[in-house]
Every structure is written in C-alpha cells, then in structure tokens.
Specification:
- The protein is mainly beta and about 775 residues long.
- It folds into 2 domains: about 90 residues, Immunoglobulins (Immunoglobulin-like, Sandwich); about 475 residues, Maltoporin, Chain A, CATH 2.40.170.20.
- It is built from 4 helices and 49 strands.
- It has a 22-stranded antiparallel barrel.
- The longest helix is centred in the C-terminal third of the chain and has 9 residues.
C-alpha cells in the first residue's frame, strides 16, 4: 500500500479488475465498519475500474466488492489514520459459476437509534407505523404524546415541528401532519439539545421530520397501496421514481390519499347553580394529494447544485355534532339542544428550494448556499345551526394566505485535525393575511353581517440570524461552543380592533457541550442551551371561532415568547447515551387554558403566558439485545417533575406533579421472511398547565411478509388494540370541569409495497441540501 499526505481526513482509493486484468466498470464498492458491517460509504467504479472514498475518518474498515456475475469480495480489516491517504491494492474479481439475477445489499437500521443530543426513529423500519399518517407515526415516538393534535415531549408542550429542517409554525401543521402519508417519511429525529447552527426556536424540544431520499443507482422506484378501517375507511396510493446516472439525480413522487379520522370530546362544567354536559363528535374526511420533484447535478467533484419543488392539496367536507345538556344542582334537566357544524375546508401549498455546495478542498472546507420559498393557502367555510334552543345560526368564511421565503449561507473551516470552525447567516421573511367574514341568521331569518366578529388580520415577521461555533476533538474528548444571534421583528394588525401589535426580539442564544471518557467504553457528556418559543400565528390571531353556542376559541394578540434555559447530563456506552439527567427552566410559559363566564355559562379556549415553569428528571434507554435471537427491540423509562408558579385569574397558581413515561418496541424475526412487531407506550398521570390528567396508554401490533426477493412487502397492523384515552380535570378558581378526549381506535391497516428497477446502492457521495447539513451540524455530526 502507498500513502500520500493529506490534512484532517483520509482518502481511500483503488481499482477493481476482472480475472483477465481488464477494468471492472460499474461495480459496487462498499466501505464497511467491521464491528457491525454497516455501510460507511458506497461507490460505483468508473470506466477504468477506479473508485475513491473521500473524507474517511480514522478507524478500522473492511472493503466489499459486489457485481453482477462476479463472486463477492471482502477484505481483511485495515486501518485508516485520518491523516494520510491510502491506496488499496487492486482487487481481482472471480466470475461466478452461475449468473446471478440480482445482487442485494442490505444495511439494516434499528427502529430506534439513540445518538448524542437526539433520538432517531427510523420509521420506515416499522411495521405498525407505515399504514397511516405522520400523526400516527408521532404517537409511536418514545416520549411523545399526541392528544387532540397537541404534541408533548416528555410531558411538556412548546414542541417545534420541522420538516426537512424547515419551520412549520406559520402553517396549519395539524392538517399537514394528519394528511401527510407515513410512506413519505424516512425518519423522525427528536432533538433535545440543538447547537448554534440550529434555529433557537423550540423550548420543549425539536421534532425534525425527514422526508425520504432515494439512494439507489439507475432507474428505480416503488408503488404502495393501503387501506384501513376503524370506524371510518382510509385508503390511498403513493408512488416514487428515481433516476441516478452520472452527475444527474432526478426524482419524482406523489400520491392520493383519504385519511379519515374523528375526535370525541366530553366536557362536564360545574358552576355554582348548574352543570353543563357537552359531548361533541368531530370527524375529518380529507382527500389529499401531493407531488414532489427534484434534480441534483454534480458540476464536478467540488461543485454541486440542486432544485426541488413540492405541491400539496387537501379537500375536506364534514359534519360535526355537539349535544349540550344543562342540569340544576338538584340534577333536574333545564334544557337540551343539539348543534351541527357543517364544514368545508380546502388548502394547498407550494414549496421550492435551490442549493449550491462548494467543497473547497479535501480537508473539509465547505461553503453552502440555500434558498427556499413556500406558499400556503387555506379556504374554510363553516355553518353552525342549533336545534332545541333559540340561538342564532352562525356562518364563517375564512380565506387565509401565507408566504414564507428565506435563504442561508453556511461555511465550515477545519483548522487542523483537532479544531474546526463553523459560521453562517440566515434570513426568513413571513407574510400572512387572514380574513374572517362572520354572519348571523335568526332561526327562520336571513343572513346578516356579524360586525363584532368580522375581522381582517395581517401579520408580518422578519428574522435575521447569524451563528458561529467551534469544535474541538482529541482522543475521546469532544468540545463544542456555539453562539447564535437572532433579531426578529413582527407586526400584527387587526382591522376590527383597529390595533397594531409590534414585537421586537434581539437576543443571543449560547450553547455548549462537552463529552469525556470515564472508564473503558463508558463516557459522559454535559450540555447547555438557551432557547425561545415564539407564539404561533393562530394563537396570536384575535378571531373568535364558535364550536357551539356556549363554547368558542379566540386568539390572544398579546402573547409573549417563552424563554428556556436547558441543561443535560448523559452517560454513554460506546458513545451511545443510555442514561440522561435534565433540567429546564422556562419564563412566560405559553399555555393553553379554558376560561368561562359564570353569568352567561360561556366557556372559551385561549392561550396565556404563565410566569414560570421548571422541569427536571431523567431517562433510561435500553436495547433488547440481551434477549436471545430472533427477538430484538428497544425500550425506555422517563421520569420528570413538573412545577408551575404564576399569577393567574387573580390568584397564585402553584401546581406540581411527578410523571412517568414508558415505551417498548419488540421485533421478532420468523422463518420464511415473516416478522412480528409490537409497540406499547404509557403516559403516567401528569399536569399540562392548569389541566391534571390520568394515566393513559396504547398497544399496537403488526406482521410483515416479504416476497420476490424483498421486492414485494405485505404488512398488516392494528393500532390501539389496547387503548386508554385522555381523562383530564381542572379545579382552579371558578373553573371546575372534567374532560375526556377520545380518538379512533382500534384501527386495522393493510399495506402492500412493490419495489421495482435497479436495487444497487448509489455510488456517489450523498447529495444534501444545506438544510440537511444545517440539521446535521446542529446534531454534532
């Protein structure tokens, strides 16, 4: 072997030849890690049989060569020092006695991967998670709880949702997640301690939903059909195709789906002299479609450009029903009425992205530029009518338009084999316009304008950000120090109130982490970050939406952002965290509450700021490797103490609660390419703002069969085989109510997926947009 000097990282190269000594072109060459034979990098030989792996870190590796009509070659383990280039001796392939129809490369990932600062959920490996929507997937993520589309992470709200590293807080994220097929998702990343390269948004943690990207050569794709039933039918078809050849990578995917759902909410409100019993049934029957297109082009080994676009649409017509009964203290029925709410809701969105990447040199110096824009448009009409009481009918017409545009520049500079600098800048502009045309109609009368509720709300926000961070690595010590500056200016204008609300926030957000060895494979890490959670647009919007004559929702334009100090200590085994201790302290806590007018009996939902919230606790994660094969899986236990201190409704709000979360995912590999999977979760009794809730839990199970050399995959699963729904209670000041929230369960799902075309792994380095690289830098990769 020969070596040439390089700086920071190594290059591994060589040549593959046939038995006759001719170059073996278009042969798969894989660089593997010997501990578990996972794929570190993959290449396809050029016409002269050559291959090159760039940016190889120090460590031990294996070389595997695979090609049609040739016997597989696998080398002995060899070492790369990370400082010098390495030329591997020529590999001579032997012709197989029998021609193979195909060569299959399988690099399996576990369903759960615990990595520094985040939990990676490889949802495309799940049997029970692939037949539904993204909302269904989120319910399977350890530590996440989804109730009435509100997401909690480890028992607290303030969770930020990203899609491919981009924010979603200006969109109707509930509809997007409910109607986005799980087939589109590669993995979900639960990020507890993002670094300075990441947006400072997200005090309750960050959930990054990563869409699938094809990694195969040639032309290939898949078609997926599904159907499901609980109390409502669900069905859909999705397809994807990809062509990767030479410097080009072209992709397209799309689908049409109907993901029906419903929610039941029972509410008992107790006033001094009367009790309200309200029961609502709210279904959703959306038919959604989506199309994604993308193209990447390698100008040469150093320069790469790419563009992508996506269009989505949803049409939803449904009828919600609400039954209200009013009782006296003597349990005498005073009145009873039924309200129907006929709803028509349509939305469509368009996104476009473009990126440029310049790999300046082989040491890892890199410049990335990314531009993106998105349009989100929603049209909603609802008509509310009541039978059994003399309430006016109500009609809402609500057009809403949102435009988001932005760009960012990122730069990486390795100083030597120990120090690395990163810096970047980002701008995001958002323009929102929302109208509410409200009408009233006396029973038997004509529609007239409701001047008190008709409104127009406009919201503009610009966020400028810049960051810098330094990385130090030596032996098993790792250090990262980052600082992010964000300057956001927002203005909201309400036509009916004739008022303008301005909000200017300019802050520094530091982050720091240190990883150190303890003994043998054991290590420890400690991290700190300061983060912000800005109010969502729909929480700021002052519109009033009636659910029935006595219940409504209204926004709060005076909400302030919440700010959180967060620290975490972790123990690691072979650099994989398995035990965590954490502490969070939040000011101006954004909290969803229900208030009421005792005189009229009206109750309304809104958001407020509570003064202070503290959470501390720990978590333990464990694989099921100690169980004999064919059983595998993952589990975990999380324990947290929650403490609220605030002035609310003219009194001291002092509430605390100890909570326990648990999850377990078990896989069983059976003969004949059969697999079984079971997933269970439990959320112990806890507190969310002013609501205390009981323990609730769920259990899902599924089975999978693969046919035709894994080209055809059949899956059957049942969600909610065992299901305890959400039971909550509020007892504070004049608020005395109980609520039960239920959703569709159990749901049986059947899914069939056919993979077609060339199944070779790709031979060029992963093509990534700058949003992908931003995400990975934030995670310390």
């Amino acid at each position: 072997m020969s070596a040439n000097a390089a700086r920071g990282q190594s290059k591994v190269s060589g040549q593959i030849i046939t038995e006759s000594g001719d170059p073996a072109e278009f042969v798969n060459v894989l660089l593997l890690t010997p501990s578990d034979s996972t794929v570190y990098q993959m290449q396809l030989t050029e016409a002269d049989g050559s291959y090159v792996f760039r940016g190889v870190e120090a460590g031990d590796y294996l070389l595997q060569v695979m090609g049609l009509s040739y016997s597989d070659f696998i080398s002995e383990s060899f070492t790369v020092d990370g400082e010098t280039d390495l030329v591997y001796p020529a590999v001579r392939l032997a012709v197989m006695a029998e021609m193979l129809d195909a060569v299959e490369v399988v690099a399996k990932k576990p369903f759960l991967e615990q990595k520094a600062g985040r939990l990676v959920v490889n949802v495309d490996q799940s049997i029970t998670g692939q037949g539904g929507t993204v909302t269904d997937l989120l319910k399977k993520v350890p530590g996440l709880v989804v109730v009435n589309n509100r997401i909690q992470m480890a028992g607290r709200s303030g969770v930020t949702i990203l899609i491919d590293g981009r924010p979603t807080r200006y969109m109707d994220i509930e509809s997007l997640l409910r109607e986005m097929p799980a087939d589109n998702i590669a993995r979900i990343e639960v990020i507890s301690q993002p670094g300075a390269a990441y947006d400072a948004e997200g005090t309750g943690g960050v959930i990054n939903i990563i869409l699938k990207k094809n990694a195969l050569l040639g032309t290939n794709g898949n078609i997926s059909l599904r159907a499901g039933y609980g109390e409502l039918w669900k069905y859909g078809v999705n397809a994807a195709i990809n062509h990767r050849s030479g410097p080009w990578n072209l992709s397209a995917s799309g689908g049409v789906n109907r993901y029906s759902w419903f929610e039941r909410l029972d509410l008992e409100r107790i006033l001094d002299d009367r009790t309200y019993l309200q029961s609502s049934y709210s279904p959703g029957l959306p038919v959604s479609s989506n199309l994604r297109l993308g193209a990447d082009y390698d100008i040469n080994d150093q320069h790469r450009v790419g563009i992508s676009a996506q269009a989505s649409r949803s049409d939803n017509e449904s009828m919600a029903n609400n039954q209200t009964e009013l009782f006296s203290n003597e349990n005498v029925l005073l009145s009873s009425f039924t309200t129907t709410n006929e709803r028509e809701r349509n939305w469509h969105s368009y996104t476009a992205d473009a990126f440029y990447r310049w790999q300046i040199d082989t040491s890892g110096q890199e410049l990335s530029v990314d531009f993106n824009m998105a349009d989100y448009n929603r049209r909603a009409i609802s008509t509310q009518m009541t039978v059994g009481a003399d309430f006016d009918d109500r009609r809402n017409e609500e057009p809403a338009d949102t435009r988001i545009y932005g760009g960012q520049i990122d730069y990486k500079l390795p100083l030597n084999d120990q120090w690395r600098l990163e810096a970047g800048t980002k701008f995001t502009g958002t323009r929102l316009a929302n109208d509410l045309l409200a009408s009233l109609r006396p029973q038997g009368g004509e529609w007239t304008n409701d001047a008190l509720r008709t409104n127009s709300f406009e919201y503009d926000e610009d966020i400028f950000a810049g960051y810098g961070q330094v990385f130090f690595t030596k032996d098993n010590w790792e250090f990262n120090l980052g600082l992010r500056y964000e300057d956001s200016q927002a203005q909201g204008y309400s036509a009916t109130l004739d008022s303008t609300t301005n909000l200017h926030i300019a802050k520094l957000f530091p982050s720091v982490s240190l990883t150190m060895p303890v003994a043998g494979p054991l290590g420890a890490s400690v991290s700190y970050s300061y983060r912000i959670e800005r109010p969502g647009y729909y929480d700021l919007n002052p519109f009033v939406y009636y659910l029935d004559p006595l219940t409504f929702y209204k926004g709060n334009p005076f909400l302030r952002p919440e700010l959180t100090h967060s620290g975490q200590f972790s123990l690691t085994y072979e650099k994989q965290p398995f035990f965590n201790l954490s502490y969070d302290e939040t000011r101006n806590v954004l909290t969803e509450v229900i208030e009421q007018d005792d005189a009229s009996g009206e109750a309304f939902q809104t958001n407020v700021n509570l003064d202070k919230y503290v959470r501390y606790g720990g978590s333990l994660f464990f694989p099921l490797d100690f169980i004999a094969k064919p059983i595998s899986g993952y589990g975990g236990i999380m324990c947290f103490y929650h403490d609220y201190k605030a002035k609310y409704l003219n009194a001291d709000f002092l509430q605390d609660q100890f909570t326990v979360n648990g999850f377990l995912q078990v896989n069983v590999a059976l003969p004949g390419d059969w697999k079984l999977e079971a997933t269970g979760w439990l959320q112990g009794a806890g507190i969310d703002g002013i609501i205390r809730y009981e323990t609730f839990y769920g259990l899902d199970a599924g089975v999978q069969k693969t046919l035709l050399n894994d080209q055809l995959r059949l899956q059957f699963s049942v969600d909610g085989i065992v299901q305890k729904f959400f039971h909550g209670r509020v007892d504070y000041q004049n608020l005395d109510y109980n609520l039960v929230s239920a959703w569709e369960a159990p749901i049986a799902r059947l899914r069939a997926t056919w993979n077609f075309g060339n199944q070779y792994l790709k031979g060029r380095e992963n093509r990534r947009s700058t949003s992908d690289r931003e995400r990975q830098r934030a995670q310390g990769e």
